Amino acid sequence: MISKGFVHKYGDNIDTDVIIPARYLNTANHQELAAHCMEDIDKQFVQRVQAGDIMVGGFNFGCGSSREHAPIAIKASGISCVIAKSFARIFYRNSINVGLPILECADADKIAVGDELEINFDCGEIHNLTKNETYKTEPFPEFIQNIIAKGGLLDFLKS
C-alpha cells in the first residue's frame, strides 16, 4: 500500500479534544466531524487539507479521552496517514479500528509543513520527496494491513 500527500504538522501532546472538540461529539456523521477537525488549534486546516494529505505530530499524539471520533474526523477530512514520534495507545487502536493508517517514526521531527511524502506501508519507508530523504518505520503486520485495506475492523469482519 502506498500513500502520497502533503504534510500538515503539529507538535507534542495533541489530544483528542484538540483533534475534535467535545462540543461536536453529539453527531455520528463523519463529514460533520471532519468539518471541525483541528479547528481549535488550526482554524484553516479544513480549508487547506486535500484528499491524500498526511498529518505529522510529535510525542504522545492522540492523548486524552478514548473517543473514536478523533481518528474518524482525521480520516474523513481526507488525511491518508498520521505519522508521529509516538501515539497514545487507545488512539493507536482506535485508528486501526476505523481504518486510519498511523506510523510511529523517530524522525518525524525532520518532516516540515508542506513537505510532500510518499509512504510505502509494505516495507515501512517514508520518502520525503521535498527533501530527498527516507525515514524508516516498522511496517504493519499483514493482519493490520488487511484491516486498513478493508476500511476498518467492522468492514474487515464483514468480509
Write a structural description.
This protein is an alpha/beta fold and 159 residues long. Helix content is 29%, strand content 19%. The protein is built from 7 helices and 7 strands, in the order E-H-H-H-E-H-E-H-E-E-E-E-H-H. It has helices spanning 16-19, 30-34, 45-48, 69-77, 89-98, 142-149, 153-158; strands at 2-9, 54-56, 81-84, 102-104, 116-120, 125-128, 133-136. A 7-stranded mixed sheet has the order 4-3-2-1-5-6-7. Strand 3, helix 5 and strand 4 form a beta-alpha-beta unit. Helix 4 packs across helix 5 (89-98). It is globular, with a radius of gyration of 14 Å. It starts with a strand and ends with a helix. The model has no long low-confidence stretch (mean pLDDT 95).
Question: Which descriptors would you attach to this protein?
Answer:
single chain, alpha/beta, 159 residues, 7 strands
Q: What is this structure's SSE topology?
A:
Elements: E1 2-9, H1 16-19, H2 30-34, H3 45-48, E2 54-56, H4 69-77, E3 81-84, H5 89-98, E4 102-104, E5 116-120, E6 125-128, E7 133-136, H6 142-149, H7 153-158
Parallel strand pairs: 1-2, 2-3, 3-4
Antiparallel strand pairs: 1-5, 5-6, 6-7
Helix pairs in contact: 4-5
Offer a quick outline of the entry.
The chain has 159 residues and is of the alpha/beta class. The protein contains seven helices and seven strands. It has a seven-stranded mixed beta sheet with strand order 4-3-2-1-5-6-7.
